[in-house]
Amino acid sequence: MRIILYILQKEFIQVFRNKSMLPIIFIMPIIQLIILVHAATFEMKNIKMTIIDYDLSSTSRGLMNKFEGSPFFKISNYTFSEKEADKEILNGNADIIIEIPKDFEKRLISENSSKLLMKIVAINGVSAGLIYAYSSNVIQDFNKQIIIENSGKSNIISQLKNININYSYWYNPQLNYKNFMVPGILVLLITIIGFLLSGMNVVREKEIGTIEQINVTPIKKYQFIVGKLLPFWIIALFELAFGMTIGKLLFHIPIVGNIGLVFIVASVYLLVILGLGLFVSTLTNTQQQAMLISFFFMMIFILMSGLFTAIENMPNWAINVDRFNPVAYFIRIIRMILLKGSGFNEIKYDFFCLVVLACLANCLAVWRYRKIA
What is the DSSP letter of 74? Predict the structure, then answer.
């Protein structure tokens, strides 16, 4: 135990002496948290709209007023030319075109129905779906208003007025997207500390030649591994606590569940990540190689973690591959605990999956590591 303490003392001194590592540990994660929470969002505001109004009636003007009053749309151009409107899309000045036909109001009065043409830029399928949903809601609301104003049937009007819908959004009543993103980004912060820096730290010993000196000492293999990885385990837990404090103070994220349970799961999760970092260090001889291989694994883990897109929407083969993704498990767990107040019974399957992955990662890393003497 005394040997491990000496190694820990040496590692902390080495970490704090390394001027290039300190910003990565303490400054970069905080900047990422503050920036990504605001930038990484699927909420759409200021959707640029171009309107072609051939009708020029009070009804068409009422529809345009509906869109102007919506917080999601910004009418950037009015035109009577379809070519000009298409040019706006090509130039990136419009996300959607609403074309109101010439007989729009006339058909509504005489036939009780009319048509609109919507052209939506669908380069990004997710954005196009949201734009369509927002536009449809505005048009449906306008349609109900027209029915109430023009219908002479009092029973229909009374039915419409008596339909009251009360919404109840559980776990995120304000539909604040930051509440969804902050826990996931916190996972990324400790992943960077645990995965990237732990692997680079071991490889650095190879680069400067001190690994050979350590290998010929009486230090046992497990003592060296524990002494190398435990500092980053402690630092990553500190980063998690600091990040949760910032999330609470700056973004007011709800912390409904047990914080102690979060740190218990984080401790096991970090064993997985540290084991993977050690495994990468056994495959490489330079910090550059370790960084490239670490980013390869991290990109796959992050993109398939459910941070931005739901895992349930992935194809079956991707869902099966994701069973070996520790980031996906921890993101799901931390969101359940912080936002839903879930207890151990609700997360025990994901927790034990992390335990299994921790055993596999560390056994593989220790097996691959070779110590002379």
Answer: E
